[in-house]
Structure formats: C-alpha cells, structure tokens
C-alpha cells in the first residue's frame, strides 16, 4: 500500500486505519513549553511535576534546554526539541555545525529522553524571512546528522508554519494555496518531508483567524463549540464538506495547499493552538471563559472524532499553546496570556479541572473506569486504598493542594484512582474494572459525572 493512501471501506471512514510510521498511532494532545519570555522561570523539576500530574504524554520545547531534557529523562514523555531561528544560518551552511547540534542536543539525551522530533525554526517563512533560504538546507543537514548517528527513524525533522503561509482567504479550504511569495521554499520543504517520511507542522490559531478575519464566522465556530447550530456551520461548496469549526478549516486549508502542489499523504500535526485568557481593552475576545472553552473543546475535538473533514484518516494531533503565561513577551497584552498553568502548578482556567486518562475500546468508544454511584462508602474506601497502594495507581494528583484534589469527596477520588489503574492495565493488556464491585465502565467522562457539569478533563491519554 502506498504510504498514506486511504483505505476507505465504501463511504465508511475508519479512524483506526494504520498511520504513517512517522506518527505515533492515534491522536495525541501535547503541550508547548515556551519559557523564553518569562520573568520567573520555574525549575525544570517543577515543570516536570506539572507535566506528570496531568499525564502529559507529548511536549514541545522551543529550544533544546539541557536542564529540561535531563528532567524529562526516563519519563517516556515524547519530546519535540527546537532549533532557534537564529541558528538556521549556521546550521544550514555547515554540516559540522549541524552534526554538532544533533550530537549535543539529541544524541546525547537519547534514549533516556524520548526525543521524537526536531522542529527546525518556528514560523520562519512568515516571521524570519532572512532565515528562509537556510531552512531546508538546515533541515537536510540535520537529517543527515541523524542518519549518521542512526537516529533518523526515531527522530523526525520538520518545521512549524503559521497560517500566514497560506494565501487569504483560505476559505473555502478546497481553494487554499500557499502564498506565492514563499512557494519555492515551501515546495522544497514538502519534498523534504516526503523523502524523509516526516509530517507538516502547522501553528493554527482560530483566535487570530477570528479576531483579524472579516467577521464572516461566529465566535462559536472559532471556539470549536460542539453541536454548532447549522446556521453557523460553513459548507465548502466545491466539496460539500461541512465545517463545524475554524480549526478544522485551517487544518484542511493546509492539506489542500499541499495538494495544490501535488503533495499528499503527509499528516498535519498542529504544533500550536490555544486561546489567550486576558487581553487589552481592544481585545475583548481574550477572556478566561473563552480560553477555557477553546482548550476544552480542542481536546475533545482531537480525541472524539476522526481527522479533518478532508483527511479523516489522519487524526489531528495537537500541541496546546502553551504551558505557562509568558509575562514579558513583547506585544499586546493577549500575547502574554496563553498559559494553562501558574508556575506553582495551579490550573489557570479552573481550580476544579480534573485530569483523566481515557482509552478507546475496540468499537472506538472512549471508556473510563469510575466508582459506582451507589457503592458502599467503606468498600469504596478500601478499594481506593488498594488502588493507590498495592495497585500502584498514580494518586499524587488527588492529594491535598494538588490539581485533582477538588472535588474533595471519596467518590471523585476513587474514580480518579480506579481510572488511572484501569487505563494503565489496559495499556499493558489487562482489563479489569471491578474493584470488588465498586467500579463500573462508562463512556461518559468521569469529570462530567462526578462534578458540577462544566468540569472537563484537561489532558487525556489515549492508547
Ligand atoms: C516515546 O514516545 C513515543 C510517542 O508517544 C512512544 O510511542 C514511545 O513508546 C516512547 N518511548 C519510550 C521509550 O517511552
Ligand atoms: C562549521 O562549524 C564548526 C562547528 O560549529 C566550526 O568549528 C567551523 O568553524 C564552521 N565552519 C565554517 C566554515 O564556518
Ligand atoms: C477580508 O476581506 C478582504 C476583502 O474581501 C480580503 O482581501 C481579505 O483577504 C479578507 N480577510 C480574511 C482574513 O479572510
Ligand atoms: C500537479 O499534477 C497535475 C496532474 O499531473 C499537473 O497538471 C499539475 O501541473 C501539477 N501541479 C504542480 C504544481 O506540479
Ligand atoms: C498559584 O499561583 C496563583 C497566582 O499567583 C495563585 O492565585 C494560587 O493561589 C497559587 N496556588 C497555590 C496552590 O499556591
Ligand atoms: C465499547 O463501549 C461501548 C459503550 O460502553 C459498548 O457499547 C461497546 O459494546 C464496547 N465495545 C466493546 C468491543 O467492548
Ligand atoms: C506494583 O508495583 C510493584 C513494584 O513494581 C509490583 O511488584 C506489583 O506487582 C505492582 N502491583 C500491581 C497491582 O501492578
């Protein structure tokens, strides 16, 4: 089978189709850790604690900070490291410099630190034009350095692009094309991805699409609201595909732009997407509520469905932007406020966020293991103690002061621990969700049934 060719069964699109070797099977949610513009840097170990207590499985670093890479050792967390834009020139012209970079920042940390990708520069074609001629040469030389160290199958090389690489208007997506100004470099970039079985990296921010757009779309469409009213959905008249969110339209615009250059079969991974929680007087859409809504809906979007409308076979794995606010980032107030957590680990959007792991069963439903509503308190208590003790469930997050402590009741804590145990057992082949009759499998996510209704799991982990 040709790489990436579709295996549609009639009109039924299966989400569980084999993915390219370059993409871990299944969709994942990761998080961006940008700390360049923070006044008070948390220690690498503090960052790690936050990542672990929220079951984060994938992170993107904007550089290759050695303290972070050391802290991430032996965690299994998949790490994308970054080459800074101002390093491109040197690396693109000098094989020795490229080899040095790979040796110092990648080879030296593998296999302990699970480095899986190098993001070469960030938004180079739209924000760092002088680096553009060096981009693909740098990618090539880094790739050769990986080949030389036998790491090319383990570590993919790509480069994140902004939506500005696509000519406006990018709706309908089927008509999207890359901006003519950058097309030569884009072509070489795509050729590189094709040759090395890598993937397209896209920074997709509906916040900007909405706030700088022509008010042709509703905020609900931008915020990925589920069950969007039909009148707010947008249909691509060329393909008949119905767009329920700007996020999907952006991802498809990238696929169609690649298609216009005759490239296909390469997945888009969204390397940044988020929403600011605070903005200046002229930035009314940057609110805590919108930020929480967007991030929550984004996580559900990535996990609940197939990929984008035109490419359902590629789930849209996404790195949320970003872990912390970058309080000294230049620019408008909104630029500084995309973080999900305070550096002390408290979630910014809600004190009550509950993080759970979920798995799909073989019919593709998300399943969770939770405490039964009518379970006897004494039995529940014993089961909880077993899960957190002998059972080895990771119960740090439900301790006092930790992110999943609230709501503080036996039922919620037991559900958290049961689910943690169950998901891990499932990953290694086991399946029991029983806990002496106190637990039950459900497809509703436990945060919704255990708490006030608006509570949503933040980071899922799907096998
Ligand atoms: C590294 O991350 C990838 C992607 O999540 C995962 O498949 C792999 O098992 C991880 N490797 C280790 C050694 O944990
Ligand atoms: C290439 O890079 C290496 C290592 O960084 C450096 O020692 C060397 O001087 C560079 N060569 C040129 C021609 O710049
Ligand atoms: C807004 O409309 C103008 C004029 O029709 C067009 O040139 C521009 O590309 C549009 N912007 C967006 C973001 O679609
Ligand atoms: C794409 O392929 C078609 C059909 O083979 C061809 O007509 C077209 O010129 C190609 N476009 C590009 C940009 O290479
Ligand atoms: C964490 O920091 C934030 C902001 O400074 C503060 O509001 C919150 O109470 C702190 N949380 C804890 C547990 O100290
Ligand atoms: C998956 O879960 C759903 C909902 O609980 C259930 O209806 C279905 O039978 C399950 N499939 C398998 C194969 O267990
Ligand atoms: C918990 O971990 C210990 C030590 O790694 C192991 O011996 C034990 O079998 C584990 N228990 C379960 C229920 O997995």
UniProtKB/TrEMBL annotation:
EC number in record: 3.2.1.39
PROSITE patterns assigned to the protein according to its UniProt record, in alphabetical order: GLYCOSYL_HYDROL_F17
Domain of life: Eukaryota
GO term, biological process aspect, one: defense response
UniProt organism field: Stephania cephalantha
Membrane topology summary: Lipid-anchor; GPI-anchor
Subcellular location(s) per record: Cell membrane
Family matches, as SMART domains: X8
Protein name from the UniProt record: glucan endo-1,3-beta-D-glucosidase
Molecular-function GO terms, alphabetical: glucan endo-1,3-beta-D-glucosidase activity
Keywords: Cell membrane, Disulfide bond, Glycoprotein, Glycosidase, GPI-anchor, Hydrolase, Lipoprotein, Membrane, Plant defense, Signal
Catalysed reactions, as listed in the record: Hydrolysis of (1->3)-beta-D-glucosidic linkages in (1->3)-beta-D-glucans
Residues of the signal peptide: 1-22
GO cellular component assignments: plasma membrane; plasmodesma; side of membrane
Family, per entry: Belongs to the glycosyl hydrolase 17 family.
Domain X8: 367-449
């Amino acid at each position: 089978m040709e790489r990436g060719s579709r295996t549609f069964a009639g009109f039924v699109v299966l989400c569980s189709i084999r993915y390219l070797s370059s993409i871990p099977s299944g969709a994942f949610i990761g998080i961006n850790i940008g700390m360049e513009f923070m006044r008070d840097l948390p220690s690498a170990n503090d960052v790690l604690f936050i990542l672990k207590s929220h079951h984060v499985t994938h992170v993107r670093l904007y550089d290759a900070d050695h303290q972070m890479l050391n802290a991430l050792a032996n965690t299994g967390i998949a790490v994308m490291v970054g080459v800074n834009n101002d390093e491109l020139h040197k690396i693109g012209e000098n094989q020795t410099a490229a080899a040095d970079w790979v040796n110092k920042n990648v080879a030296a940390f593998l296999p302990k630190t699970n480095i899986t990708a190098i993001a070469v520069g960030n938004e180079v074609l739209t924000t760092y034009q002088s680096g553009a001629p060096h981009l693909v040469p740098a990618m090539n030389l880094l790739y050769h350095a990986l080949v030389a160290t036998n790491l090319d199958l383990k570590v993919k090389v790509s480069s994140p692009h902004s939506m500005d690489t696509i000519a406006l208007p990018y709706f309908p997506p089927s008509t999207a094309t890359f901006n003519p100004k950058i097309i030569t470099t884009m072509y070489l970039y795509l050729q590189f991805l094709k040759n090395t079985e890598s993937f397209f990296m896209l920074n997709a921010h509906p916040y900007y699409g909405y706030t700088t757009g022509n008010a042709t779309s509703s905020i609900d469409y931008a915020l990925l609201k589920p069950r969007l009213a039909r009148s707010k959905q947008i249909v691509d008249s060329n393909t008949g595909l119905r767009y329920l969110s700007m996020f999907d339209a952006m991802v498809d615009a990238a696929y169609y732009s690649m298609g216009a250059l005759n490239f296909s079969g390469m997945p888009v991974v969204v390397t940044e997407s988020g929403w600011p929680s605070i903005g200046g007087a002229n930035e009314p859409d940057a609110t805590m509520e919108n930020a929480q809504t967007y991030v929550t809906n984004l996580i559900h979007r990535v996990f609940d469905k197939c990929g984008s409308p035109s490419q359902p076979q590629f789930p849209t794995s996404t790195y949320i932007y970003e872990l912390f606010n970058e309080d000294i980032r230049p620019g408008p107030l909104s630029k500084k406020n995309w973080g999900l957590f305070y550096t002390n680990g408290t979630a910014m959007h809600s004190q009550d966020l509950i993080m759970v792991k979920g798995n799909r069963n073989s019919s593709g439903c998300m399943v969770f293991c939770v405490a039964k509503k009518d379970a006897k308190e004494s039995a529940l208590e014993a089961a909880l103690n077993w899960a957190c003790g002998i059972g080895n469930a990771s119960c740090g997050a439900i301790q006092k002061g930790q992110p999943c402590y609230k709501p503080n009741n036996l039922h919620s804590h037991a559900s958290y621990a049961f689910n943690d145990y169950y998901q891990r057992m499932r990953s290694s082949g086991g399946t029991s969700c029983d806990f002496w009759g106190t637990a039950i499998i459900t497809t509703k996510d436990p945060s919704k049934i255990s708490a006030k209704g608006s509570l949503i799991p933040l980071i899922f982990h799907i096998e």
